[in-house]
Design brief:
The chain is α+β, with helices and mostly antiparallel strands. The protein contains four helices and six strands, in the order H-H-E-E-E-E-E-E-H-H.
Length: about 190
């Protein structure tokens, strides 16, 4: 998994302020305003994004890509290597001829063609589904609570709230997928 080189501009301040609000801290005007809250949010926002987006095969964050083989072959075992996209968080599906292996930010294979479906880390909050935006806020509030509040009771409560929201988000994503599968089956059965 890799953290996209995201520039945390003004759009991300809303996410940070929602996290700061959850821990009862002062709001910020920018992620580089020099305040304690801004410093911790800018340091821990990448971790919050990676945690949320690499933990489940979120359909709302899915992208597809056809990868191009690198000019240099792997040291051994396979003929080709493909670099994963910069916004890659988690593989959903790989389509290629034959076996493949994922090593770091590369896919190794003997296949000359490689297509993937993957979970992408968003470059702006507007690319985030509301349920994932809420998860990122909750994860960020938990992460910043540890150094800012230094109160295990509050941090543990925030962690539990994140886990509950995560479970509900996974359930909603699964229900939506089941509903899609059912509707597709109905259409195919009745053609």
């Amino acid at each position: 998994m890799s953290m996209t080189m995201i520039t945390f501009d003004a759009q991300w301040v809303t996410i940070a302020n929602r996290a700061l609000l959850r821990i009862g801290s002062d709001q910020i005007s920018s992620l580089d305003d020099g305040s304690v809250g801004a410093n911790f949010c800018s340091q821990l926002l990448p971790q919050a994004l990676e945690t949320c987006y690499s933990s489940y095969h979120w359909r709302s964050a899915a992208k597809r890509a056809q990868l191009v083989p690198l000019a240099i072959a792997p040291a051994y075992g396979f003929a080709y290597q493909y670099i994963l996209p910069r916004d890659f968080a988690l593989i959903r599906k790989v389509q290629c001829d034959g076996a493949y292996e994922i090593e770091g930010m590369r896919i190794l294979s003997d296949s000359t063609a490689m297509s993937i479906s993957y979970v992408a880390i968003p470059s702006t909050p507007s690319e985030m589904a509301p349920i994932l935006r809420d998860l990122v806020v909750r994860q960020l509030s938990y992460l910043i609570s540890i150094p800012m509040l230094k109160n295990d009771t509050i941090s543990n409560r925030l962690s539990q709230e994140y886990m509950q929201a995560y479970a509900m988000a996974v359930q909603k994503d699964s229900i939506a997928l089941d509903e899609e599968d059912t509707s597709i089956g109905w259409y195919d059965d009745n053609r």
